[in-house]
Write a structure and sequence with these properties.
Blueprint lengths: L2 H11 L8 E7 L3 H13 L3 E7 L25 E6 L6 H11 L6 E6 L3 H5 L7 H17 L3 E7 L5 E5 L6 E2 L11 E2 L4 E4 L7 E6 L2 E2 L3 E2 L4 E6 L2 E7 L2 H11 L8 E7 L10 H4 L6 E6 L14 E6 L3 E6 L4 E6 L2 E2 L4 H24 L7 E4 L1
Parallel strand pairs: 1-2, 1-3, 3-4, 4-8
Antiparallel strand pairs: 5-6, 5-18, 6-10, 7-9, 9-15, 10-13, 11-12, 11-17, 13-14, 14-21, 15-16, 16-17, 18-19, 19-20
Helix pairs in contact: 1-2
């Protein structure tokens, strides 16, 4: 797909942009081509666009927006923001700070894209026609309908995940289109149905076998023991991953407390380096620790947010009337068609092949390490 067309479709179908509205695009210099695509797509829609290119430097991590651009967050606020930023773990607090500033008025729309790449627009999770956007929105609406009156959720997977948590009075929502009541910001590409778990309720073991937000695909599983909503012990054979996760979960007291549970529902999402796309793979789930203040009923005020993606999940939802429904069975939604099931199996084979390649490249001399938090 032509990049500007993909950007235009996202602005129109997800952000519901209209002619003559004002748009500010914050774009890192390393994402300049993507910024040009959004600039062109926005102008095709008749938007008044400011493309703001931010300078980056390898090994230098930002904590605030340059002073000359602060008016775009105060006196020169637009109708819509698009953030095309690099997705490195060390700048997560910086990105969260910008999000809070952009959405503080509860009326400005935001498409947040940490780690976005050009190929997401040409062949990946953002390469969607208007019809494909609507189809995914309809899928999200059906899933949310099926999740009504859910009190608790249990999640298992073949890698060893075995978790339970509560969602009493917590609303599920989707990032596939703007919610004009809550004005919740969303990632681009879209493709999730999300909930903020009760912060003290997560119990059990999470075995992340695909990827970690801000780090990327894993060559060995990362295990986390959780008690009363918080990470207690985590282990990995990869010392570097273990260290980086430990640093993020130590950002503040709430960084190790659960903040998110989400289903991936984007049929074009691929298992790629950038977590922004991988977390949307249809039939996966991810769990995050840290910030969820802008989720319905979320109470986690951490400056950090770290996601953990798992494969082939089985998800059982426990309703308030004690009924139990298996929403996902080893990565297959219960209301998928036979064609969708076949496509999912093909994508699962690709993921397994990629994981095998990563494992073969990993050092055989790593030792298992644990840390308590």
């Amino acid at each position: 797909m032509r990049p500007a067309e993909a950007a235009k479709n996202a602005l129109k179908c997800v952000m519901e942009a209209k002619k003559n509205e004002r748009l500010v695009v914050f774009c890192d210099d390393v994402r300049a081509e993507v910024g040009d695509a959004f600039n062109e797509g926005a102008r095709d829609l008749g938007l008044e666009t400011n493309l703001v290119v931010l300078k980056t430097s390898g090994g230098v991590f930002r904590n605030q927006l340059p002073a000359e651009y602060l008016p775009f967050l105060t006196t020169q606020r637009p109708d819509i923001y698009i953030n095309l930023l690099r997705g490195i773990r060390e700048e997560t607090p910086f990105r969260i700070s910008i999000i809070h500033s952009e959405t503080s008025d509860h009326k400005t729309r935001l498409g947040h894209c940490p780690g976005i790449t050009m190929d997401m627009l040409t062949e990946g999770a953002l390469a969607l026609t208007a019809k494909e956007h609507r189809r995914m929105q309809d899928f999200a609406a059906k899933l949310i309908k099926d999740l009504e009156d859910t009190a608790a959720i249990e999640v298992t997977n073949p890698a060893g995940t075995d978790l339970t948590f509560r969602v009493d009075n917590r609303a599920f929502f989707t990032d596939t289109k703007i919610d004009w009541k809550t004005m919740k910001w969303m990632n681009l590409p879209t493709g999730e149905v999300i909930v903020a778990p009760v912060e003290t309720s997560l119990q059990g073991k999470l075995v992340c076998d695909l990827a970690i937000g801000g780090i990327g695909p894993l060559n060995t599983p990362f295990a986390i023991d959780v008690e009363d909503g918080a990470v207690r012990v985590a282990s990995s054979e990869n010392d570097d991953v273990r260290r980086r996760v430990a640093e993020s979960l130590a950002t503040d007291n709430m960084a190790k407390v659960v903040g998110e549970f989400a289903f991936g529902i984007n049929p074009k999402a691929r298992f790629v380096e950038e977590f922004l796309e991988a977390e949307k793979i249809k039939g996966t789930i991810h769990i995050a620790f840290g910030d969820n203040l802008d989720y319905p009923s979320g109470k986690n005020n951490s400056a950090n947010h770290m996601d953990f993606l798992i494969s082939s999940p089985t998800v059982r939802v426990h309703k308030s009337n004690n009924a139990v429904v298996e929403m996902l069975s080893k990565g297959v939604f219960r209301f998928w068609s036979n064609q969708e099931r076949q496509l999912r199996e093909g994508k699962a084979n690709i993921i397994r092949s990629s994981k095998t390649t990563n494992s073969a490249a990993a050092s055989m001399s790593t030792r298992k390490k644990t840390f308590g938090l």
